[in-house]
Amino acid sequence: MNQVLYSNIVLNYLKDNHSEFLENIDFKEDHSFDCSIKSISGSRSLWIATYNLELTLGFENHESKCDWHIHIGASAGNNLLEELNKLTEEIDGILNNQKMFVLEEDMYLPIHGNDEEDIKHKGNVKFFNWSKI
């Protein structure tokens, strides 16, 4: 699969499943794109990118610096349906306030599984979900 086809498939998927991201889309010379939505406070953007035939999802601050990101698959499109479903799972977890984050050195970092209990023992740590970011 080439980058044009990959990005077109992802774009059509986003149109059908996460159209809010397409209000802010930037097409690149290599035919990849990134798109994003802003948090309620405007302090962060949740972005999706299709660079190098790979889905990437992450947070970016107002200075365009990335807090964190995850790569969803690196199959070059061979498992794209699976990867798109995983993307939806991740997006829904964030937007539905199910995923929690901690603010550390001005970066919102996700908490995974049992991390929450370990972090609580550090004391004075605040937890955030998408609606508070």
What report would you give on this structure?
This protein is α+β, with helices and mostly antiparallel strands. It has helices at residues 3-17, 80-95, 115-120, and strands at 25-27, 33-38, 44-49, 55-61, 66-72, 101-104, 107-110, 127-128. The strands form two sheets. A five-stranded antiparallel β-sheet has the order 1-2-3-4-5. The chain is globular. The relative contact order is 0.14. The mean pLDDT is 90.
Please give a quick description of this structure.
It is built from 3 helices and 8 strands; from the N terminus they run H-E-E-E-E-E-H-E-E-H-E.
Q: What's the layout of helices and strands?
A:
Layout: H1 3-17, E1 25-27, E2 33-38, E3 44-49, E4 55-61, E5 66-72, H2 80-95, E6 101-104, E7 107-110, H3 115-120, E8 127-128
Antiparallel strand pairs: 1-2, 2-3, 3-4, 4-5, 6-7, 6-8
Task: Give a quick set of tags describing it.
133 residues, alpha+beta, 5-stranded antiparallel sheet, 3-stranded antiparallel sheet, 3 helices, 29% strand, globular
Mass-distribution shape: globular
Number of helices: 3
Mean pLDDT: 90
The N- to C-terminal Cα distance equals 37 Å
The total beta strand count reads: 8
